[in-house]
Amino acid sequence: MVRYSVLPKNNDNSALAKAADMRVHFKNTWQVGRAIRGMKLSKAKEYLAAVMDHKRCIPYIRFSHAAGRTPQAKEFGLTQGRWPRKSVELMQNLLKNIESNANEKKLDVDKLSIATLVVNRAQKIRRRTYRAHGRIGAYMASPCHINMSLEEVTAPAPKPTNQAKRYGKVKPPAHKRHGDTRHRCTYK
Question: Which SS3 state, helix, strand or coil, does residue 128 take?
């Protein structure tokens, strides 16, 4: 049984859904999950519907060495993207499920956003393929587990004050702190 990777802090204004050992490629599903994480529920549904119609693409950043280039990836500042149909259909079904879970808890669906979306590798499904000269090779599937949580978005966080900005400053590199001017550094 798969447990939730991250549980919400407040259980009253959140909904959960999960899927275990799904027969979809892990790498493609990871890209889809990364693309919709943090979106509002309605926006994520529209985006995935546009991907199914090939109007928009899923940007590929991590497992992208063989992904083709498409002009649709320009909106993300990238060049590589795909339209992984099976992974997108799974995410659409999971979004439908989590929306019904939220309706059951009487949450406002218009205010819900995807707080966490974790895609993990599941145990590989082993098969065999027969090779030349009597050898046998591995022929494995790469399924995945998916955990998702929605939370109601309340008012946006207030802007930090000057004192809060000062405490959150990034420490300059050591050679800048000690007065070294020979290094060409972009830190100001």
Answer: strand
> What are the tens digits of pLDDT across the range 73-84?
999 999 999 999
Are 167 and 137 within 8 A, CB to CB? Answer: no
Residue 22 structure tokens: 């799904």
Q: Residue 115: helix, strand or coil by DSSP?
A: strand
Global pTM?
A: 0.80
- End-to-end C-alpha distance for the chain, whole angstroms: 51
DSSP string, 129-180: EE-GGG-EEEEEE--EEEEEEEEE--SPPPPP-HHHHHHTPPPPPHHHHTT-
* pLDDT tens figures, 14-30: 999 999 999 999 999 99
Interatomic CA distance for residues 17 and 156, integer angstroms: 25
